[in-house]
Design brief:
The chain is mainly α. It has helices spanning 4-12, 43-64, 72-90, 95-127, and strands at residues 26-29, 32-35. It has a two-stranded antiparallel ribbon.
Length: 143
C-alpha cells in the first residue's frame, strides 16, 4: 500500500504506483474445466462433509428402524439405557448399574474438590505481591 508521502515522492520522480495480482476463475484438470470453489477444498472440509453424511445416515437409520453398521453402537447404548431405567424403577440390582450410580455420585464430589483446589490456588496467587520499586538518587545524571 502506498501512502500520501510515498505517492508525492513517486510523483516528483514521474513514477506511478501500481498493483499486480491474479484472480482464479476456474481450474483445468484432465480436460475438465471446474469452478474455482474446487480449489478451496481442504482435507478438513472433506472430513466435515463426510462426518455430516454419516450423521445423516445414522439419524435416518435410527428413525426408520432399518439397522445399518453406523447405527449399531447407538442402538446398543440406547438398549443399555433402557435396561438401566427398568432396573432402577423395579429395584433390580445390576453390577453395571451399581458402577454407573457410584460413578455418577462420585463425579460431583470430584468436581467440588477440583473447584476447591482452584480457589485455593487463586487465593495463594492473590497473596503474592509485586515487589515495591525504590526511588534511587541518580545524582543529577541527566543534567
Amino acid at each position: 500500500m502506498v501512502g500520501n508521502s510515498e505517492a508525492a515522492f513517486l510523483a516528483k520522480l514521474n513514477l506511478k504506483p501500481f498493483m499486480y495480482g491474479m484472480d482464479l476463475h476456474s481450474v483445468y484438470n484432465d480436460g475438465e474445466i471446474l469452478d474455482k470453489a474446487i480449489a478451496k477444498i481442504t482435507p478438513e472440509s472433506l472430513l466435515k462433509t463426510f462426518q455430516q453424511g454419516v450423521s445423516n445416515l445414522t439419524g435416518l437409520s435410527l428413525e426408520t428402524g432399518l439397522i445399518t453398521a453406523v447405527a449399531v453402537p447407538h442402538l446398543l447404548v440406547n438398549s443399555f439405557k433402557n435396561l438401566l431405567a427398568v432396573a432402577v424403577e423395579s429395584g433390580y440390582k445390576l453390577d453395571a448399574l451399581e458402577k454407573a450410580l457410584s460413578a455418577a455420585s462420585a463425579a460431583p464430589k470430584q468436581q467440588a474438590a477440583a473447584a476447591n483446589v482452584e480457589s485455593k490456588k487463586a487465593v495463594v496467587e492473590e497473596k503474592v505481591e509485586a515487589p515495591v520499586e525504590e526511588d534511587m538518587d541518580m545524582g543529577d545524571l541527566f543534567g
